[in-house]
Design brief:
The protein has six helices and eight strands, in the order H-E-H-E-E-H-H-H-E-E-H-E-E-E. By secondary structure, it is of the alpha+beta class. It folds into two domains: about 5-110, CBS-domain (Roll); about 115-145, no CATH class. It starts with a helix and ends in an 8-residue tail after the last strand.
Length: about 160
């Protein structure tokens, strides 16, 4: 599975010359914890988070944003992106395609995939993902069913 399979495509951004208050308003209004910061050319130059708004001094987004961002591409393997989120202790990854922002991958996007289970009624194989697999990875059956029931202990 790839980042493009689960990323959020409609990304809310903010320009670097906007005020800290504008960033706080966007974060609150959209119930998100971070925003990619773009320059006048639309290139991602940083990220501003709730932490930045409350912990850093400055009037503009460019004064408080985090500049050294880590990004991924749409064809990055989801496991690799999850590894980055965990090991870099970050909550979101801008998704860039040839330098252009095309999405954002957050921890909640990854959690949503883990929560969705697909069950093969033939062999009992369980697969995770937003979309059902074309066929069971174990037995090849095309009869895949969705389930939201919790996995039994020890699964």
């Amino acid at each position: 599975m790839y980042v493009s399979d689960v990323m959020t495509r409609n990304v809310i951004t903010i320009k670097e010359d906007q005020t800290r208050e504008n960033a706080a308003r966007l974060l609150t209004q959209h119930r998100i914890s971070g925003l990619p910061v773009v320059n006048d050319d639309g290139q991602v130059v940083g990220v501003v988070t709730e932490y930045d708004v409350i912990a850093k001094d400055g009037k503009s987004v460019s004064d408080i944003m985090t500049r050294g961002i880590i990004s991924v591409t749409p064809d990055t393997d989801l496991d690799a992106a999850s590894y980055i989120l965990v090991n870099e202790r970050i909550r979101r990854l801008p998704v860039l395609d040839q330098g252009k922002l095309v999405g954002i991958l957050s921890r909640s996007d990854v959690v949503r995939i883990v929560a969705q289970r697909w069950l093969c009624p033939v062999c009992g194989e369980v697969a995770h993902g937003e979309r059902p697999p074309q066929q069971c990875p174990r037995c090849g059956s095309a009869a895949i069913a969705s389930t939201t029931e919790p996995e039994p202990p020890g699964s």
